[in-house]
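B., you asked whether I could sanity-check this one before it goes into the benchmark set. Here's the sequence:
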Amino acid sequence: MIVAFSVAPSGGTSTDSVHDAVAAAVRIVRDSGLPNRTSSMFTEIEGEWAEVMEVVRRATEAAGQYGTRVSLVLKADIRPGHAGELDGKVERLEAAISRQDR
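And here's what the prediction gave me:
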């Protein structure tokens, strides 16, 4: 499965930036050893259900240390028997774009 998620604490300090909380969450993801990538709005992680959801839980808890509550947005692509889709989906998209440009 691939999960795209974002976490943001609230109820903490009066700063508008949540970069320290997001950094703590992303560190958990990167240290997991699972395939992942982070963009300006989401972190994507790929693996089996239990291991991915455990990492999301831990990342959410890490962000939660920076506030009194946490907002979690999560989208999942659950496709048993497939691996390498974090890159595979993007490669197929780029190939389709390339074919259309011809």
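One thing to flag: The chain has a mean pLDDT of 93. Otherwise nothing jumped out at me.
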